Amino acid sequence: VTLIEHPFVFTREVDDEGLCPAGQLCLDPLTNDSTILDSLFSSLHSSNDTVPIQFKKCCYGYCIDLLEKLAEDMNFDFDLYIVGDGKYGAWKNGHWTGLVGDLLGGSAHMAVTSFSINTARSQVIDFTSPFFSTSLGILVRTRDTAAPIGAFMWPLHWTMWLGIFVALHITAIFLTLYEWKSPFGMTPKGRNRSKVFSFSSALNVCYALLFGRTAAIKPPK
Question: Can you name the CATH fold of 10-122?
Answer without folding.
Answer: D-Maltodextrin-Binding Protein; domain 2 (3.40.190)
